[in-house]
Predict the structure.
Amino acid sequence: MLLTLACIIVFLAAIVRGFSGFGFSLLSITALSLIYTPAEIVPSIFMLELAASANLLPSVWKDVHWKSLGPLTLGCLVATPVGVYFLAHLPAAPMQMALAIFVLVATALLWRGFALKSMPGPVASTVVGAASGLTNGAFGIGGPPVILFYFASPAGNVAGRASMVAFFIATDVIGLVNQSAQGLVTMATFWRAAVYLPALLAGVWLGVRSFKSVDAELFRKIVLMVLAVLAVLIFARAVLSLNG
């Protein structure tokens, strides 16, 4: 029964991932944490993230904004160890609350029409990548800074979604390397990932089909709504952890 429920959760989160290019980890981990401990599911979810990105990348390769991707990845690589240090020495809940509030404010601004007139340069892109690495290392939520980066930029919905797919391959590899170093990647991790894989692939396929049939403005609004929901989930998880 629990395994069936877990597969349903993975399937629904994968639909969001296939459609928007992000959201799978946070949605699935938040829901699956009600069934399993984080140590049991987080490494498996990262493996599924890699599978989802690998599945999507060939179809979006030509649309990736490679010029911005390099500085973003560099910033992520540099800042992830700092985030891991914060994870080990600072309480995560206040940082999660701050991230959630920032994401909600930024989402509201984007909804009202805020947009950058040009793509940020290498320095600004590296800073955004560092913010992603910092939050990914600190509590496994590295997506929001990069999502906001692309959806505020003139790159466009297609290029932004494609670039996020490519970027998350790098962050997932970095995350798995760190988890493996902590002894969290075991044979059970591979078994869970294999069991969930059909649900992931089916959900991603359905999400991609939905993306192809939606117009650009509606897609942008849906992405912002999903981002707002994720921010609320981040905040709620932080509050629950503070209250024990």
